[in-house]
Specification:
Number of helices of chain C: 16
CATH topology of the largest domain in chain C: MetI-like fold
Chains: A mainly alpha, B alpha+beta, C mainly alpha
Shape of chain B: globular
Oligomer: heterotrimer
CATH architecture of the largest domain in chain C: Orthogonal Bundle
Order of helices and strands of chain C: EHHHEEHHEEHHHHHHHHHHH
Largest interface: A-B, 59 and 61 residues
CATH superfamily of the largest domain in chain B: Dipeptide-binding Protein, Domain 3
CATH superfamily of the largest domain in chain C: MetI-like
Structural class of chain B: alpha+beta
Number of strands of chain C: 5
Number of domains of chain C: 3
Distance between the termini of chain C: 59 Å
Strand content of chain B: 15-25%
Strand order of the largest sheet of chain C: 1-2-3
CATH architecture of the largest domain in chain B: Roll
Distance between the termini of chain B: 27 Å
Largest sheet of chain C: 3 strands, antiparallel
Radius of gyration of chain C: 26 Å
CATH topology of the largest domain in chain B: Dipeptide-binding Protein, domain 3
Number of strands of chain B: 25
CATH class of the largest domain in chain C: Mainly Alpha
């Protein structure tokens, strides 16, 4: 098992290098270091000397990937790519182009992201499973049929409508919670997080309830369930004891991959609700073309995604001992 | 039985939920403990990038540091036109003029004879800095935090993590230190290039510092302290403990305005030393992030992702609310606090608010004390009184909200690139095309649709409040407007069509080639929000049968097009640095062109006569002669029409009834110290406006349960039946 | 010629897609194993109702995909403006532009304006609209007028529908069956294909179109936006954008996903490694970021080559196509992975082994044996992805990397509506219109996709 994990991690390295190269190519195709300097120095009274200085300070005056002027090995190392992109592998994110330490910012902004993503995730699973179970329980009745239609209707509505509608109704008309903002202390944090979490959960309710319902129905159709029922177990017992337990396997293994990504947060929720997390960090960086941050976030996202994949594989072995990792 | 208990529990929960309104507002975004405190609540939209006074140059940065750093002069809070008064200085000095040999010249000497102007500034003794660890001494009266090691820094992430603080008296040398910092090789001060032309020796000084810095740094990237006290600068010298002297080339009366900006605020060397230690920058402990000043406030919490908090500086010097203002200020209650010591508010909380909807909603709920008026909510907020003036709507008035208006010393214009082969150039053909377009683009309509009347159509480059601006028919642009009964009327579209035909494009078709005229509008507006604006602009050109192609690119690409002169028609704006016509006229000065000189003349307008007039007007004192020359220059520019003169925006500021002493000031930024709030009134209003309404949720819950219960009953019946069978 | 046809990139691809769809239909109708599931789809009333709605959308989209330039009057030149057939049909709506917002069915403007009276007095009042309700003498009579017009339009629509139904029955009834009997059979729903549902849906659509069409000649049925354009027009113009994003995205990514997926599963070894590496790398980059960077670089390209994009429509179209491509790049990986798994299974199948043993070339095996057997996976993915892509467009526009701002799209409408919600009185109609049009399309697509999946998924087909 440990050997497997190590092998998977080693396999991740070429993938991360690939990710790095793609980000690098895309970003520098889009804007030259000159452009970056201009964005950061502002509009008023910017001179070419100031731009040259800005670039030199941040090492952006080097060639992109191959330095013909440098001697020997430095041909490859005295370049923007080497100096800025390869350090990421030792989690040295460096400074943002504004001069702030990215690692420090990420560790700071991770928590608000998590504070909204984790409850959304947990409450979400709880709600979806409950509703799916309810529908499966009443399968074939008007409740089930109506429920499925409602699900399809709900999943046909854009997330943006949920956010706009939620803010308008709950905050503006009903005065129930602050319309946006964030705080990390106790009761106030609860007030701020309620709405985004609720909107996050509700916006995915249609698709997930429907999906989980099919898992349950698939399980209900299996032979052992029929046997259990034949033995005289009540429907509720069958459902809760057997079906729920077994249907949780595809549900859980399906969501394991996103768990590490919870750290990254949600771009839309964070920017609508003014949550100072990593999602809004990324959006701001895209808008202000801060390459250092974008690169760090892409790298982090890829690492977490790969971790998620490994976790998924591991979770399969945990729930089903027949699966062997090679 | 079991169900009965549950139902009772449920009822109890419902009762609790609906009874909570008695407990105060649920949607209060601030800690409940702060209710009733003397705090001013405000918001910021964009995180400030720089808080170093040598680097900060945008209004969202000044909003903070102007409260903290104190340059020698400030603008009088109430008087108009804008007047400079001393802040830390004892007086606003008159310059002494010297000729090339250093001999004094009389005050009325011609500008050409003046080689140097010398400003001697005397500051008030006894002013002290805010408490700061950089000033702290240990038992051996050494600086406690000036030689920190990596280990000392472990676990310290903000300035608040250094427990010992102290203060020091403000001295003239601190001002000199800051002027020297403008040339610091690592700081990239945005005014360095401007000041190079004026402050004696600054250009060479930058080179000296560069060499010195490289030597001290020895290859290190960070943690380099360059003690500027060891490097003298001819143009900025300390005379005695409380006096310093600034020497500039030639005559430049506008320098005093510059010296009212944070670029010329004092910087204690201890702070520079403190933040230049190795390992500090890696923790974002920099002067760019933690200001150290003598101002009324100091930055206590610095989290630009969430909140910035200013608190009253306990060492603030004695400053009093002004005792005189302009006419009408007494009636508005602006002099009620005359002579009272400043500041009034203990704490100012700025929350990050990027989106306009929450911003406006929170203002209406009473959680922000003041707000600009958004175009979107205009009709809710503003109504027009019979006389054409504006006032807040009845709904707002009921809430006690007040409206403050002022015309900003800024201009938003649509420019033609004068280097462009079609719209540019100085031929009669191009000039008439530009004039035709200028008539067709109906800025009155633009102001009414997109600004809801918040602005006045510009007749020229100078906005109201700047010397040289003339109201009514005296200041009319005769190429675009007619003056009818003392009112300005945009010329009819037929006049534009006629001009277009004279230019050789009858009905929008090029006579020579027979092709329809296609013009290009370059814009960095790529978001959907700007779509309406772009559609409107296209409609304006369509009036003349000209098809306008919008070339939208990202911001960088747009800047590059401007720099290379590849743009054709574009929108640009300018905010005054200081209230002097020179700061606007230079936007059309030839040697200041964007292409080739990287200047602010974005239209790349070149007219030798205009340039000659500008050079004369530039250094003149305000008076009839200056006005005469400005009129001449304006007439030339209006005829050439390098710009559609666009609009001077009017700023509307709303404030709640519990805020007092607010008067819009478009030049000064250090105005928070004059404001006063009534926290008790605010607490009451907030509660009254934010009664939570919870019943819809109860209804939804009941409906949900109600939907499940019948199904459950049916299922139980089936189950029972199954069991009995 | 009075007009000059213009072929935009997306137009051409839409034609290709249309041809492919028709070709596939013909192919499927000749093969029993493909005909059966489709017949199953056709028997579900919900699916058929959804199909009718989808057909209406597709029709609108196709009308908007035939572009041309008009010849300028009294000149040899063609106008620089590119129009579509839909633009032409909706010309009355396009011409009726107000100055700014107006509510649905309003006869007066939404906000007060300063009106200068001849005597120099200035007042703030609600001015009458230039077009909306302009035929009314008194704005207060609008309700009565609207009611009358609704009655007229509905009656006409019902008549038209009755005629259509009658024609259908005549064609549909069994030979020699009496007309009333056939009608009764239809009304009872006594037919394998739920024609009753289809006809009712068609009836509802006709009713809606007739009312909207008639009323919009006199009013702005869905109001106007900030610059006074009719919101109904904008919503209809957005149909094409939504459809293009939903369909072309899958079309452009399909060849790659199918080819690479099958190759990886079939050849295994280093081919598999390379392909797996490529898609893992691509899929581990956060999608929004990849899209943002790609859209920004397109803008760079367009800025550097202004001569190739000399009109608004061509620029917007290029960006739309590029958005489809890049969305395709971010979404092809999952299909590729699915197909690889299928191919891994299929290569062990007897008939594949047999073909290999008989010396068939790899290309032949891939094309004849593997590809037809994964068609259902492809079809299901395409249909299921459609609604997700339409929704994604809105979100991307919010982040600022969606379609061109000059292009009508629901995403752009929602985005500007965000700010309009803060107005007072609230401007709700743009948002509501975008919501309704988008919702109807996505709902129909979802329901249709469900039916297709149920019919084609062998796991569910038992």
């Amino acid at each position: 098992m440990i050997a497997y994990i190590i092998r998977r991690l080693l396999y991740a390295i070429p993938i991360l290098i690939g990710v790095n190269l793609i980000t690098f190519a895309l970003f520098f195709f889009v804007n030259s270091p000159d452009d970056m300097a201009r964005i950061h120095l502002g509009v008023k009274r910017v001179t070419p000397e100031a731009i040259a200085k800005w670039k030199a300070d941040r090492g952006y005056d080097k060639p992109l990937v191959y330095n013909t002027d440098a001697p020997g090995l430095a041909k490859a190392t005295d370049t923007i790519f080497y100096r800025h992109s390869l350090k990421l592998f030792v989690l040295d994110f460096g400074r943002s182009d504004e001069g702030r330490d990215i690692y420090y910012d990420i560790t700071n902004r991770m928590w608000p992201s998590l504070a909204i993503a984790l409850p959304t995730f947990l409450v979400g699973i709880l709600v979806y499973v409950t509703f799916a179970l309810l529908l499966a329980f009443f399968r074939g009745s008007y409740l089930d049929a109506g429920g499925v239609v409602v699900c399809v209707v709900l999943m046909s509505i854009s997330t943006l409508f949920y956010v706009i509608g939620g803010q308008y109704l709950v905050s503006k008309l009903l005065h129930l919670v602050p319309i946006s903002g964030y705080d990390d202390s106790g009761w106030l944090a609860f007030k701020f997080l309620t709405l985004p979490v609720a909107v996050g959960v509700v916006s995915a309710i249609g698709a997930n309830t429907r999906l989980y319902r099919t898992f349950f129905l698939e399980e209900i159709g299996k032979d052992y369930v029929r046997t259990a029922r034949a033995k005289g177990l009540s429907e509720a017992r069958v459902l809760f004891r057997h079906v729920l337990q077994n249907a949780m396997i595809p549900i859980l293994t399906g969501v394991v991959v996103v768990i590490p990504l919870l750290f990254i947060g949600s771009l839309i929720m964070e920017s609508f609700f003014g949550i100072p997390g990593l999602g809004s960090y990324t959006i701001d960086a895209i808008h202000s073309q801060d390459f250092a941050i974008v690169r760090a976030m892409v790298f982090l996202g890829s690492v977490l995604y790969i971790v998620g994949l490994i976790l998924t594989d591991l979770s399969y072995t945990l729930v089903d001992p027949r699966v062997r990792l090679e | 039985m079991k169900y009965g208990v549950r139902a009772r529990q449920f009822l109890a929960v419902v009762l609790v939920v609906t009874a909570v309104p008695a407990m105060a507002a649920w949607n209060n975004p601030y800690p409940a403990a702060d209710t009733g405190k003397n705090i001013l609540y405000s918001a910021f939209r964009e995180r400030p990038k720089h808080l170093d006074p040598a680097r900060a140059y945008s209004s969202n940065e000044y909003e903070f540091i102007a409260q903290i750093y104190e340059p020698p002069f400030q603008y009088h809070y109430l008087k108009r036109p804008y007047t400079l008064v001393p802040l830390t200085a004892t007086a606003v000095p008159e310059p002494k003029f010297l000729d090339r040999q250093g001999k004094p010249l009389p005050r009325n000497a011609p500008a050409s004879a003046i080689a140097y102007s010398v400003y001697e500034i005397r500051i008030r003794p006894g002013i002290r800095y805010q408490p700061h660890p950089a000033f702290a001494h240990d038992d051996k009266s050494e600086y406690r935090y000036h030689a920190l090691t990596e280990r000392d820094l472990a676990g310290r992430y903000t300035v608040a993590d250094f427990p010992h603080t102290d203060t020091r008296e403000l001295i003239a040398a601190d001002y000199v230190y800051q002027i020297k910092r403008l040339a610091h090789p690592r700081l990239h001060s945005p005014v360095q290039s401007v000041m190079n032309d004026y402050i004696v020796g600054l250009r060479d000084y930058a080179k000296t510092l560069k060499q010195a810095h490289d030597k001290v740094a020895g290859g290190r990237e960070e943690g380099v302290f360059l003690d500027l006290r060891n490097y003298p600068l001819a143009g900025a010298q300390e005379v005695d403990r409380y006096t310093y002297r600034v020497t500039i080339h030639g005559k430049y009366p506008q320098l005093l305005y510059w010296m009212a900006m944070p670029f010329f605020a004092p910087m204690p060397w201890e702070a520079d030393r403190f933040f230049s230690q190795p390992g500090m920058a890696a923790k974002n402990l920099t002067l760019d992030w933690y200001p150290v000043g003598t101002g009324a406030y100091m930055l206590m919490e610095n989290n630009p992702n969430r909140r910035m908090v200013l608190e009253r500086n306990p060492n603030y010097h004695d400053e009093r609310y002004p005792a005189e203002g302009e006419a009408g200020d007494v009636e508005k209650g602006l002099l009620r606090d005359a002579g009272e010591p400043l500041p009034f508010v203990d704490k100012v909380v700025f929350s990050l608010e990027k989106e306009s909807i929450p911003y406006w909603a929170k203002f209406l709920q009473g959680y922000y004390d003041r707000s600009g008026v958004l175009a979107e909510s205009f009709d809710q907020a503003i109504k027009f009184t019979g006389s054409g003036d504006t006032d807040v709507s009845d709904e707002m008035k009921e809430k006690g909200i007040r409206l403050l208006t002022s015309i900003a010393p800024s201009t938003y214009y649509m420019g033609f690139n004068m280097l462009d082969p079609v719209v540019g150039g100085y031929t009669e053909r191009a000039r008439k095309l530009r004039q035709a377009v200028s008539i067709a683009v109906d800025y009155e309509e633009q102001i009414s649709i997109f600004r809801n009347g918040r602005g006045i159509p510009a007749q020229g480059i100078l906005p109201p409040g700047i010397f040289g601006y003339e109201e009514g028919c005296a200041g009319v642009n005769p190429y675009i407007y007619d003056c009818v009964n003392g009112q300005l009327r945009r010329k009819p579209i037929e006049a534009a069509r006629k001009l277009l035909a004279e230019a050789g494009y009858p009905n929008g078709v090029d006579e020579k080639s027979g092709k329809p005229l296609l013009l290009y509008f370059d814009t960095p507006a790529i978001g959907p929000e700007e779509k309406a604006q772009l559609d409107w602009t296209r409609k304006q050109f369509a009036k003349l049968n000209i098809q306008l192609v919008v070339r939208a690119t990202d911001y960088n690409r747009f800047q590059e097009k401007m720099r290379k002169g590849d743009a054709q028609i574009f929108i640009w704006g300018w905010n005054a640095d200081y209230p002097d016509p020179e700061n606007f006229l230079f936007l059309l000065y030839g040697p200041n062109a964007r292409v080739g000189h990287d200047g602010e003349n974005t239209a790349n307008y070149q007219n030798t006569e205009f340039d000659r007039l500008f050079e004369r007007v530039k250094n003149m004192d305000n008076g009839p002669e200056r006005l005469f020359l400005i009129r001449q220059a304006m007439a030339i520019a209006r005829r050439d029409a390098p710009w559609l003169w666009g609009v001077h925006p009017k700023q509307f500021l709303l404030e709640h009834v519990w805020v007092a002493n607010a008067k819009p000031h478009n030049m000064a930024n250090n105005t928070l110290k004059y404001l006063r709030v009534d926290p008790a009134l605010r607490a009451g209003q907030r509660e009254a406006w934010n009664r939570p309404v919870a019943w819809p949720f109860v209804v939804v819950a009941v409906l949900l349960v109600g939907g499940v219960v019948p199904a459950f009953i049916a299922w139980r019946r089936r189950e029972k039946k199954g069991a009995t069978e | 010629m009075p007009i000059q046809p213009v072929f935009l990139w997306t137009d051409v691809l839409i034609y290709v897609l249309l041809a492919a769809a028709v070709g596939f239909g013909l192919y499927a109708s000749r093969h029993e194993h493909l005909r059966t599931p489709w017949r199953q789809v056709a028997r579900r009333p919900m699916a058929m109702a959804a199909a009718v709605v989808l057909a209406a959308y597709v029709g609108t989209g196709l009308l908007d995909s035939i572009h041309f330039r008009e010849r300028l009057p009294d000149q040899t030149q063609y106008s620089a403006e590119v129009q579509s057939v839909l633009d032409r049909l909706l010309h009355p709506l396009r011409a009726r532009v107000e100055t700014t917002y107006s509510a649905p069915f309003a006869a007066t403007a939404y906000a007060k304006e300063t009106v200068e009276h001849p005597d120099g007095r200035r007042t703030r009042e609600y001015p009458r609209l230039r077009y909306g309700g302009a035929h009314l003498v008194d704005a207060a009579g609008a309700t009565r007028d609207i009611a009358l017009r609704v009655v007229t339009a509905s009656a006409t629509a019902l008549l038209a529908w009755a005629a259509l139904t009658a024609m259908f029955v005549l064609a549909w009834r069994e030979k020699g069956q009496a007309f009333p009997l056939a009608v009764r059979r239809l009304a009872r729903g006594d037919s394998p294909v739920p024609w009753r549902t289809v006809l009712v849906t068609v009836g509802v659509l006709i009713l809606l179109v007739a009312n909207a069409g008639h009323l919009s000649l006199y009013y702005h049925v869905l109001g106007t936006d900030q610059v006074g354009q009719d919101v109904l027009l904008k919503s209809l113009k957005s149909v094409r954008t939504g459809l293009v994003i939903g369909t072309l995205t899958t079309l452009v990514m399909l060849p790659f996903a199918v080819l690479f997926g099958l190759m990886a599963g079939y050849f295994r070894g280093w081919v598999d490694d390379v392909i797996q590496y490529t898609y893992t790398t691509l899929s581990s980059i956060p999608g929004v970021l990849l899209i943002a960077a790609a859209i920004l670089s397109l803008q760079v390209y367009m800025a550097n080559h202004p001569e190739s994009f000399d009109n608004v429509v061509a620029r917007a179209d290029t960006r739309l196509l590029f958005l489809c491509v890049i969305l395709g790049v971010t979404s092809w990986t999952s299909l590729c992975r699915l197909l690889r798994g299928e191919a891994l299974k299929l290569r062990e199948a007897d008939y594949v082994q047999a073909a290999q043993a008989l010396g068939a070339s790899h290309g032949w095996v891939l094309a004849r044996h593997l590809f037809p057997n994964v068609m259902h996976v492809v079809l299901i993915t395409v249909v299921l992805d459609f609604s997700g892509l339409v929704l994604a467009e809105a979100v991307l526009s919010y982040v600022g990397v969606g379609v061109d701002p000059s292009m009508d799209s629901w995403g752009n409408m929602i985005n500007s509506a965000r700010l309009e919600m803060a107005r007072e009185p609230m401007v709700w109609w743009s948002l509501a219109a975008a919501f309704l049009f988008m919702f109807a399309l996505v709902l129909a697509a979802n329901m249709f996709a469900d039916a297709v999946r149920d019919a084609f998924d062998p796991r569910l087909r038992k």
